[in-house]
Amino acid sequence: MLSNSLKYAGIIATGSYMPDNILTNFDLEQMVDTNNEWIISRTGIEERRITGDDMATSDIATKAALNALYNAGMSPEEIDLIIVATITPDMAFPSTACIVQKNIGAKNAAAFDLGAACSGFMYGITVAEKFIKTGYYKNIMVIGAETLSKILDYTDRNTCVLFGDGAGAVIISEVEEGYGVLSSCMGANGYDGHLLTLPAGGSRRPASVETIEERLHYIKMDGSEVFKFAIKTMGQAAEDALEKCGLTKEDVDFLIPHQANTRIIDSAVKRLKISQERVYINLNKYGNMSAASIAVALDEANQKQLLKDGDVVVLVGFGAGLTWGSAVLKWKNYRR
Ligand code: UT7
């Protein structure tokens, strides 16, 4: 039932799960015409995690979800909605969110997948916040989970060195006045969607012998154009969210950006004039995990107790679509 007054919605717990298998730049040197120096200097990535054949996105999403529930001290029956942001669902349907719902035993939860690529976790936070704010739901699990290794062409050096697998989860619930999500922004530019795609396997180009022969079931990207878009977008999206809640870049205590490329992050850092030690970066270990990147980075920063009560934390991401999303949080550590 809807209540009359709007509530404050915030992240009360985080969790994550990373597959054990590590694929290093040196491993990639044996697979495609690349080298460790190029990958580090152009991206900052040293290694990434890879799921095995026996693991799908729902498996790692489930582990991240259980970790977040444990950290919240919450039972799965308390979750009202599960949103899984992913571009690597287990299959077209049922949704990966429904599979996670079953796996964790969240039998009172509605569940759906959200497709906004690397911005998916940010979109998920914005959607969840509205449901909590209006009192429609009490506890929402937002998961960013990807097994990008399953859609990477390991003969294409332009893409295969960049991405990795992983899953992060948060639980969003009502919090005290003044805390939680202070503002958020979402944006899209479908006109440039062709810059980053997975061309086949949908209704436009169903799977066929030809699509397989043409290697159309893998990520295709115009890296330098996406790079230019990212440089323009990251800082702007962060500033838009700050302006929306009446804060300025001077107020930012911590920045958790999408982990695509250190050069892209550096451009946002420069624009926000924030010092490097207040920016969380883990892309050297994991590469770009699309919707999982910010979720995992947030959990790591949280588990390392880097986020203090009252900190203004900015999350910002961009990705295929093209899309972008940002949020400003007034952080509070909740322990049940
Ligand atoms: O989450 C959103 C997903 N996408 C992104 O975030 C990607 C954004 N873009 C980027 O991060 C960068 O554009 C890249 C890292 C992909 C590429 O960096 P760049 O500085 O834009 O390089 P470039 O595309 O201008 O390519 C420079 C050269 C090219 O060779 P030629 O044509 O100049 O001879 C590429 O073929 O580097 C070559 N190259 C490589 N060389 C060694 C491309 N990939 C590799 C590689 N190893 N893996």
Could you walk me through the main structural features you see in this protein, from its secondary elements to its overall organization?
The protein is of the alpha/beta class and 336 residues long. It has two domains: 8-179, Peroxisomal Thiolase, Chain A, domain 1, CATH 3.40.47; 181-330, Thiolase/Chalcone synthase (Peroxisomal Thiolase, Chain A, domain 1, 3-Layer(aba) Sandwich), CATH 3.40.47. The chain has helices at 25-29, 36-43, 57-72, 96-104, 120-133, 157-160, 209-213, 223-244, 262-272, 283-286, 292-303, and strands at 8-17, 22-24, 47-49, 81-85, 110-114, 139-147, 165-175, 180-188, 196-197, 220-221, 254-257, 312-319, 323-330. The strands form four sheets. Strands 1-7-6-4-5 form a five-stranded mixed β-sheet, with helices on both faces. A four-stranded mixed β-sheet has the order 8-13-12-11, with helices on both faces. The protein is globular, with a radius of gyration of 19 Å. The model has no long low-confidence stretch (mean pLDDT 96). The structure holds oxa(dethia)-CoA (UT7). Oxa(dethia)-CoA (UT7) is lined by residues 34, 38-39, 42-43, 118, 157-158, 161, 221, 223-224, 226-227, 230, 260-261, 288, 319. Oxa(dethia)-CoA binds at residues 34, 38-39, 42-43, 118, 157-158, 161, 221, 223-224, 226-227, 230, 260-261, 288, 319.
